[in-house]
Amino acid sequence: MCGIIGYCGPREASEVLLAGLKRLEYRGYDSSGISVGFRDNLQVYKKKGKIQALLDVVPESLKGNWGIGHTRWATHGGVNDTNAHPHCDCTGKIAICHNGIIENYVGLKDRLTDEGHRFLTETDSEVIAHLVESFYEGDLEAAVKSTVTLLKGTYGILTMHTDHPDEIIGARNGSPMVLGIGDGEMLIASDVSAMIAHTKQVVYVEDGEVVRMDSGSYAVTDMRNRSVDKKVDSISWELEEMEKGDYPHFMLKEIHEQIDSVPRAIGGRIDEDQATAVLGGLNMSEMELLGVKRIVIIAAGTSYYAGCVVAYLLESLARIPAVTELASELRYRNPIVEEGTLYFAMSQSGETLDTLMAIRELQRKGGRVLGICNVVGSTIARESDGGVYIHSGPEIAVASTKAFTSQLTAMYLFILKMARMRHMAWPEGKRFISGLLGIRKHIGRILEGENSIRELAVKYHKFGNFLFLGRGINYPVAMEGALKLKEIAYIHAEGYSAAEIKHGPIALINDQTPSLFIVPDDHLRDKVISNMKEIKARKGLVIALCVEGDEYAAEIADDVLYVPNCDEEFSPFLMVVPLQLFAYYCALELGCDVDQPRNLAKSVTVE
Ligand code: AGP
């Protein structure tokens, strides 16, 4: 999704803005631009394509200490220089950047056109610049507030005016916005990655709030001009965590980081003596937790698949009925919220609008929602009624990898806690803890065998269709593996229940459609083996992802990848890593943009 950044301070704004936009690249975009104020002039540069295209046109000598910048993920209007932000009003004295969608822009544009405003772009966002112009009578903040009262939809808007040098107005509704407080300088952006090089002191802006900032001060008010006291938070991440280091891509770095991110998610959350987990942020008493009769997990994408794994184990281990729902579906399904139901919103970014809106719908109906997020201070984390941070460190690659295993970790701790409050005895709790703590070394073993995964990708990357097949808690892992291949190698892949393929999809089988089976050494192994044979009997290509020593599975398959064996509840942690690497190396073979796949955004803040 779009990235926005604003700067007021002593430095050359263009340098701060362009560097900040580079940091926001990971959000996904197709064009970018900046507007820098100098004396009573706005200097606007905007280009289709990567940030480098913008860097090529912005003069190094560009002067000005105050400005705004934007990376655009197109929603309305083609990808071209004109539709890139910032957008200006008719006078050229106002420039705005916008992240979100203005759903009622057509009517507003018609009205403004009738009033004589001249539009240059096909975008929804440009109406904001002309509305501010129409309301402006010397008070920029007031004009922005009047503007946003007319907007329907979501926005994170930054506005500047040549009559107000060194001033930026920010307004937020539904799209993330954070203020960075520097020493004699101020920044504002979509997320902390754009400002961490300058400050770690941040203020998170909420929906309905407006920020007025200049190089030395800031003020937050609501739409009725009441001052809003805001807490100043400190960013926990370090700048180098947002660098690739020696890795060619963020995705590969983050896959490898899992040997550390999983233990970090465990952190000090295990009570060895009691053989249970200690989770501080649930904001629920033991009696309230015992009163939970049902759990519903809401999420999108990879987080949804993590939730699907968790739902199986909540039921099988903690004996709590549990389901996972797509946030985008639940929100509009008019869900029934019952007493005793506990909701979990799982979101790496903590900004996914589908998930955020589903939370608000559930809370509107009295539902209690706990957030499982990675980004501290993110909207979902702040709006949830409690939750658990997964502490996987910044995940920059669009394809989510370490967040998946860290989300599992956080929720496995919750499963342990709930199971130990119910049916799980102390020895079983100890075994479960041992299994969790053992994951790190297993992932390390898999990474040591990375080259065999790369060789498989070299062999298979030219196929145009794949089936990923698993059962039980590895059925969601099959879906996640398919998603990875789709989103970074642009290869069609379908994740399916291995049991279900005989009910239709087996018609797809031919020697051009490899079937990758996840074959853990668990209670369903023999069933999966039978499914593999059904494919082989129809001349299908079979890849087996199985445990070391499973020679029988290896004999049946055309190719095999091995992972270390482990207690069956933990197999998703191990099975997903080869699938992440397989997708990565297929994408590499195909010359895809691994970290910033086409059309994708890291944080989907539009519906
Ligand atoms: C996963 O690789 C994708 N980038 C995407 O499916 C992502 O998981 C989804 O958009 C949810 O994001 P979130 O976890 O930040 O809410």
Summary?
This protein is of the alpha/beta class and 607 residues long.
Describe the structure in your own words.
The structure is a single chain. The chain has 607 residues and is of the alpha/beta class. The chain has three domains: 3-235, Aminohydrolase, N-terminal nucleophile (Ntn) domain (Glutamine Phosphoribosylpyrophosphate, subunit 1, domain 1, 4-Layer Sandwich); 249-437, Glucose-6-phosphate isomerase like protein, domain 1 (Rossmann fold, 3-Layer(aba) Sandwich), CATH 3.40.50; 447-607, 3-Layer(aba) Sandwich (Rossmann fold), CATH 3.40.50. An eight-stranded antiparallel beta sheet has the order 3-2-4-1-10-9-11-14. It has a six-stranded antiparallel beta sheet with strand order 5-6-7-8-12-13, with helices on one face. The protein has a five-stranded parallel beta sheet with strand order 18-17-19-20-21, with helices on both faces. β9 and β10 (186-189) form a beta hairpin. The longest helix has 23 residues, at 426-448. 2-deoxy-2-amino glucitol-6-phosphate (AGP) binds at residues 300-303, 347-349, 352, 355, 398-400, 487, 603-604.
Features:
single chain; 607 residues; alpha/beta; Glutamine Phosphoribosylpyrophosphate, subunit 1, domain 1; Rossmann fold; 3 domains; 6-stranded antiparallel beta sheet; 26 strands; 35% helix; globular; binds 2-deoxy-2-amino glucitol-6-phosphate
- Integer average pLDDT: 95
Q: Give the C-level CATH assignment of the largest domain.
A: Alpha Beta
Question: What is the domain tally?
Answer: 3
**Approximate helicity band:** 25-40%
Through-space gap between termini: 11 Å
User: How much strand?
Assistant: 15-25%
